[in-house]
Specification:
By secondary structure, the chain is an alpha/beta fold. The protein has eight helices and eight strands. The radius of gyration is 19 Å and the shape is elongated.
Length: 239
């Protein structure tokens, strides 16, 4: 039997987030015909992870729509799975896949020029490994585009947005004439807008790329994680 795919997003008070995740679910369902695809949230939106898992009889594959491996994927989600459906198989977060092609395409869509230095913004985490993950993506993006990339964390901008000011200074020092903002986020939202507002204090004419959303790289990452876990589930059950 083909396992159900349960997508797990963080959740947000911003309705744009739920709109985006619903579009992601629809795109994944198109990519995986014959697979039941359910959407759930860890917080702030519904249905919750527990509600979706409880309604499933057979063990599903759970794919976290998270871009870094931190508290939610290591502690929060495994606890919910253990409580509501211990036989479910949790995959790696989709951010274990590079997604740099998505970041690149969004920047190009925003009009990226050869004069731009790039500011990659991520959420920021108490888990140092999660923040390191974002820094690795910045290195990959810099290598792909052959231009400087700095990282700022939306939840760690510092007093008077000091971290943004310093990142801009470093980009300018490497020859950047303009700044382009690359949101390492699935959806538009308040955190990206917080970084945009901080940039506006120091820069004019900033190019702002769109979020990853339903970019093919995101859908590929989800599908790849599901198919791998589904094969393992089939081997484990001997079907």
């Amino acid at each position: 039997m083909t396992p159900t795919l349960v997508l797990v997003a963080h959740g947000s008070r911003d309705p744009r987030f739920a709109d985006t995740t619903r579009r992601v679910r629809a795109a994944v369902a198109d990519r995986l015909p014959g697979v039941r695809v359910e959407l759930s949230y860890l917080d702030l939106d519904s249905p919750s992870v527990g509600e979706v898992l409880t309604d499933l009889a057979e063990p599903p594959v759970v794919v976290p729509l998270l871009l870094a491996d931190g508290y939610h994927s290591k502690i929060d989600l495994p606890a919910l799975i253990a409580e509501h459906h211990p036989q479910a198989r949790q995959t790696a977060v989709i951010g274990t896949h590079s997604l740099v092609s998505g970041l690149t395409d969004r920047l190009v869509e925003a009009g990226l020029s050869g004069r731009d230095g790039i500011l990659l913004c991520s959420v920021g985490s108490s888990d140092q490994g999660a923040d390191l993950h974002a820094r690795r993506r910045a290195i990959e993006l810099s290598t792909r585009l052959n231009r400087p990339v700095e990282v700022v964390f939306a939840t760690k901008l510092g007093t008077e947005n000091r971290m943004v000011r310093l990142a801009i200074r470093r980009l300018r020092a490497t020859g950047a004439q303009q700044i382009a903002l690359s949101p390492y986020f699935l959806s538009a939202g308040l955190l990206t807008e917080r970084v945009e507002a901080a940039l506006d204090e120091f820069e004019t004419g900033v190019r702002v790329a769109g979020p990853l959303g339903t970019h093919p790289a995101v859908i590929d990452a989800i599908s790849s994680e599901y198919l791998r876990a589904a094969r393992l589930s089939t081997i484990a059950t001997g079907l």
